[in-house]
Amino acid sequence: MSKLPPLIPALSPLQRQLDLTQPDQHLVLCMTRSFFVLCATLTTLFLVGCTTPAPTASQSDIETLAQSIQRLGPDVDPVEAQKAATIAYTYSQQLARDWNVTDPAIVHNAKVINGFREKGLCNDWAEAMTKRLRQENFRTLDLNWATSPPTSFRIIHHSASISAKGDSMYDGIILDPWRNSGALYWAPVREDTRYNWKPRQEVREQLLNGSLPY
Question: Is the model's pTM score more than 0.70?
Answer without folding.
Answer: yes
